[in-house]
């Protein structure tokens, strides 16, 4: 299974990180950095359309292989910004997604949008590293973390100005997360992709979204590629969507964003336009 292999690789990576990243030194570095940009607030109070958009800078995936051969993370990020994306997600996992920490740093220099470090966090040091790299939020995947780890990592992130996107993909994971004390700046991500079979169904956002209490925003992730999908998700109560592969397969990214999301300032878009993956 991909997830088990990825976590095993992360254990090796974080063992090396432990030898190079000192938390006291990291805190000293962070103290001299500008404030973060309010990832969660941008997707709720500050979003540009009726649905928030986290647009993903993604070169490849374990299940689909190479997604965008002409991958230029900065050019992609600028196209997203021009298209009115609210936030960006940048893959930093190298072995399985062909991402890089350097991509996140380069994107941070190029755009003024809040950034999510998209990686597999299993060690507290990765959170400090994310802040130093320029992230405004981190991804916490319930499938690979204990409830205690999620709670600890969420607090660690908040202590250095980072928001958290806590990702669930099953009823059991959702119940576990909702039993935790969720602080301000926390979003729940509902992954429409089954992490065991890699099949996607927007029904996950519909069924799990009903459990999210009022006041806790949730983001629908994966398998979103048409205006009909967006219409369906609006009725689930989602505050926003995270979309990568659909846009990455289009030559004109800015046009693809506007075709799927509608123009900036728009409400629900009518019609049957589809962006084919």
From TrEMBL:
Entry EC number(s): 4.1.1.48
Supply the alphabetized keyword list: Amino-acid biosynthesis, Aromatic amino acid biosynthesis, Decarboxylase, Lyase, Tryptophan biosynthesis
Give the catalytic activity: 1-(2-carboxyphenylamino)-1-deoxy-D-ribulose 5-phosphate + H(+) = (1S,2R)-1-C-(indol-3-yl)glycerol 3-phosphate + CO2 + H2O
Coiled-coil blocks: none
Task: Tell me if Lyase is a UniProt keyword of this record.
Answer: yes
- Full protein name: Indole-3-glycerol phosphate synthase
Q: In which pathway does it act?
A: Amino-acid biosynthesis; L-tryptophan biosynthesis; L-tryptophan from chorismate: step 4/5
| Cross-referenced Pfam families | IGPS
One GO term in the molecular function aspect is: indole-3-glycerol-phosphate synthase activity
Gene Ontology biological process: L-tryptophan biosynthetic process
Organism domain of life: Bacteria
Q: Does the keyword Lyase apply?
A: yes
